[in-house]
Q: What sequence folds into this?
């Protein structure tokens, strides 16, 4: 083992995250470390909270980054809201609904599953049936943007159903935040978590979360202590809360907060609606190219995530070999299938800073070159002209 | 709220962590992000594991960084080893023993407390008495280097006692790793966690952990599922484990891993014993100066941590005002007292890269200037000559 300095290869990251991190954010990340209780850092924390409120479209004061990846953000929502014996309706249409079920059960709760096919959005009718069948359910949990399949579910409708049946909602917005419409307050979402490494184009490792006042009330009135000390929002609030005096809870990942702040500034500079529109437009261009090549999306058109494009692997293409060639020859990362879809699909991310025309051109060009060379069943040469035509049309 | 780019003030970090991060590590941190399943990243993970084995002085294969701060590393040890009903002997001589108790109870275990005064090391005799009185105890948990008081406990003796009574050990090495002698295998420690932001001089946010084979056997044969999905070592191992095929668990904080790798390289280049000696020698120089100034250590001489110096606040000095002046005028951060010691002590860190002569000179000079100016009861002018004399003696 060499054990010398590690210089990562340069990649274009078009998988399911991490996405390309702009140099501006990497530079912010590397600024000199200061103390986690330094007055200057406390000011930064307040700015991050305000910027996250903008990104989530919420006025909730309990909006902050958890000092760990998105899966810890998910766990933060469940351990704080679920108590032993609680019934939680969990929608599963991919990998992450399954992880929600694990979380409910590890909290001593009972998960009532609402199943949909992988690649389909969550069916509101099934959810309504489940809510009616289980009037004692406390929480409805679902994934807004299923990273494992590229399907977008109708969070607004699902949250409305939950409210009508007096249920709290826990919503996975890991892949949706910053990439497609998400309005936490307008839609009445009670607990939501995301990740930094998707459409925020920040480095991985931090999970923004937000809890509504209704959720805060439930947390403040729990019967049992939250089973996780590290993720207990009652304790975290003493550090991230609004008072000038911040109580030590854990040492915040100071430099990661510099990066998150910069990423959120970039989102605000662009404007949330503009960012959503950019993701949508670039998705159409990529889609046009992929379909011209003969690749098929696994998600119905009206439920496709613009930031994550899952397509079936064409006949004659060896999954791992193609991805290895893309990485080795073109320094391009696309995502493999996950869980039930392993070996069946590729997941092409257009997330945050990676949602750029040059990335689309690279991806279509590299896929065409590698698939043609390996003898896969595609329409070689069709993708780039089709994409260019749509791009020119957009610009006209 | 301004919401413009955040440029942190330049600080010299001599609190209880984060400590000064050398530019070499900040530069590594800012290298371009790659995927968490990229073959190049998987190689880096293997190097980090090997370097952590060196730092911990263990050959255990279950040695890796947890993707969250030290308090999550603590929780990882407890949630994986404690099952409901288990009895755990917890030694408390400061803040962090109390946090261990919280962890045990949140896992459904029973904590048997062995209490020592804040500032004193854990008393092995009391521990032996507790082990004898509770032959059904499964685990002995204690803090090696108490960050809240600056006391070093005899981990070797305590771990031996635990073995003799057929108990597993969980050891908090957050502040000891890289700063003073720690030999996980030789001492027979079963579970140990640390942090990156202390004597490794890395950015905060990651917690290195290691589990012995005995601990691994206990984890693999649990009756109940680990209550945390995010911290379940059975799942984490599928990603960090030895096989070439790595299963996705969570998205690793890729850039933080670049920084940790660089920090561990620096430790290996210096040599573990040399790093321990440097911390010891610089502690003696700082101590000489502080004592010449008239400040008193709260920990008995034979139990003082070289990397964390807790001294009583002298008469006539206003705690918060002094620290504010040090920060505002000299850009120097020292630590406040924590818990029972709040307002009574200062904690001066000489951790990792911050353990340098120029930091000692700055700290003694700034403390002398501020305390004199504010009319505190100190021997003004005595500290720096005393420190210089010892330094010259060392160098001779």
A:
């Amino acid at each position: 083992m060499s054990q010398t300095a590690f210089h990562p290869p340069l990649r274009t990251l078009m998988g399911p995250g991490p996405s390309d991190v702009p140099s501006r954010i990497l530079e912010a990340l590397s600024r000199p470390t200061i103390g986690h209780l330094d007055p200057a850092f406390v000011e930064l924390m307040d700015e991050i909270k305000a910027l996250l409120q903008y990104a989530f479209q919420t006025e909730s004061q309990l909006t902050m980054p958890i000092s760990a990846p998105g899966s810890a953000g998910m766990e933060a929502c469940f351990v704080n809201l679920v108590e032993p014996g609680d019934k939680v309706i969990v929608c599963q249409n991919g990998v992450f609904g399954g992880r929600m079920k694990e979380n409910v059960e590890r909290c001593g709760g009972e998960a009532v599953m609402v199943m949909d096919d992988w690649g389909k959005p969550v069916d509101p009718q099934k959810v309504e049936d489940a809510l009616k069948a289980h009037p004692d359910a406390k929480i409805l949990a679902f994934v807004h943007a299923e990273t494992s399949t590229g399907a977008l579910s109708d969070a607004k409708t699902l949250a409305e159903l939950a409210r009508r049946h007096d249920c709290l909602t826990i919503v996975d917005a890991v892949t949706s935040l910053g990439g497609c419409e998400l309005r936490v307050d307008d839609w009445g979402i009670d607990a939501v978590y995301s990740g930094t490494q998707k459409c925020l184009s920040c480095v991985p490792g931090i999970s923004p979360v937000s809890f509504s006042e209704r959720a805060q009330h439930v947390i403040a009135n729990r019967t049992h202590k939250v089973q996780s000390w590290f993720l207990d929002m009652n304790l975290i609030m003493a550090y991230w809360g609004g008072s000038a005096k911040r109580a030590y809870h854990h040492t915040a990942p100071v430099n990661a907060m510099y990066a998150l702040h910069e990423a959120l500034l970039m989102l605000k500079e662009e404007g949330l609606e503009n960012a959503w529109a950019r993701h949508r437009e670039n998705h159409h261009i990529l889609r046009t190219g992929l379909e011209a090549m003969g690749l098929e999306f696994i998600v119905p058109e009206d439920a496709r995530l613009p930031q994550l494009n899952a397509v079936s692997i064409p006949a004659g293409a060896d999954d791992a070999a193609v991805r290895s060639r893309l990485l080795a020859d073109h320094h391009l990362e696309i995502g493999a299938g996950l869980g039930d879809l392993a070996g069946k699909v590729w997941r092409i991310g257009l997330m945050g800073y990676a949602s750029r025309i040059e990335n689309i051109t690279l991806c279509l060009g590299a896929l065409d070159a590698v698939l043609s060379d390996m003898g896969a069943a595609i329409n070689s040469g069709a993708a780039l002209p089709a994409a260019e035509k749509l791009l020119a049309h957009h610009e006209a």
